[in-house]
């Protein structure tokens, strides 16, 4: 016997449909990782593949949406990790090192970075939305950015600099450096920029 579409509870609108597809994709990724297919996501929702395609025309677009949905959760973890650091240079170094270490291990963000579309990721990571998310995360840290002269355009430029350096690590990770060696490298080159 065929089960009803959307497991008997159709979404109210397109936005709810997208959210439910992303949630279903996350559950499938938890089980199968990068091998997750749109067919599996459709089965999880009780819909046909064409329904998923209506909202996400490709697996890459769906995985990108999953990655963007995971960003807020990641930023909460990052801010918690940075709690108590009040020196700007050390916070920037630790934020970058933690991100370099943690993102590839995150099942959603790691998949997002490994889509083979680094140009698309780079454009997304330096978008106005990404800057706004970074600005909000940095505002939640224990560094008094305004007292250091980082407000408005100056803070945006600092975030852009840090994101661009971080993107270079995402694109080509440093082989053979452990956590302390990575932090020493970042302290040597990033801290003087602040």
Count of helical segments? Answer: 10
Average per-residue pLDDT, rounded, comes to 84
- How helical, in percent, are the residues? 55-70%
What is the overall silhouette? elongated
Protein name: TetR/AcrR family transcriptional regulator
DNA-binding region: 37-56
Keywords: DNA-binding, Transcription, Transcription regulation
Pfam family, one: TetR_N
Question: Key features?
Answer:
transcription regulation; transcription; mainly alpha; Arc Repressor Mutant, subunit A; 194 residues; HTH_TetR; Homeodomain-like_sf
Write up what this structure looks like:
There is one protein chain. This protein has 194 residues and is mostly helical. The chain has two domains: 5-57, Orthogonal Bundle (Arc Repressor Mutant, subunit A), CATH 1.10.10.60; 64-193. The protein is 68% helix and 0% strand. The chain has ten helices and no strands. Helix 1 crosses helix 2 (38-45) and helix 5 runs parallel beside helix 9. It starts with 13 loop residues before the first helix and ends in a 5-residue tail after the last helix. Mean pLDDT is 84; it is low at 116-123.
Outline:
68% of the residues lie in helices and 0% in strands. It has 194 residues and is mostly helical. The chain is elongated and about 65 Å long.
Topology:
Layout: H1 14-32, H2 38-45, H3 49-55, H4 59-82, H5 88-102, H6 107-113, H7 118-125, H8 128-139, H9 152-171, H10 179-189
């Amino acid at each position: 016997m065929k089960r009803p579409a959307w497991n008997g509870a159709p979404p109210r609108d397109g936005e709810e449909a997208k959210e439910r597809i992303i949630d279903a994709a996350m559950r499938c990724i938890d089980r199968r990782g990068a091998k997750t297919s749109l067919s599996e996501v459709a089965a999880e929702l009780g819909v046909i593949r064409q329904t998923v395609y209506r909202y996400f025309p490709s697996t890459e677009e769906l995985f990108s949406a999953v990655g963007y949905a995971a960003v807020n959760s990641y930023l909460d973890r990052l801010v918690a990790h940075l709690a108590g650091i009040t020196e700007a240079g050390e916070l920037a170094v630790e934020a970058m090192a933690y991100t370099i270490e943690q993102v590839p291990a995150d099942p959603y963000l790691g998949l997002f970075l490994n889509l083979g579309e680094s140009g698309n990721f780079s454009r997304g990571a330096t978008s106005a939305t990404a800057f706004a998310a970074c600005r909000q995360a940095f505002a939640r840290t224990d560094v008094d950015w305004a007292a250091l002269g980082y407000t408005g355009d100056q803070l945006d430029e600092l975030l852009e600099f840090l994101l661009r350096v971080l993107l270079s690590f995402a694109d080509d990770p440093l082989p053979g450096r452990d956590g302390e060696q990575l932090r020493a490298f970042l302290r040597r080159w990033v801290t003087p920029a602040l």
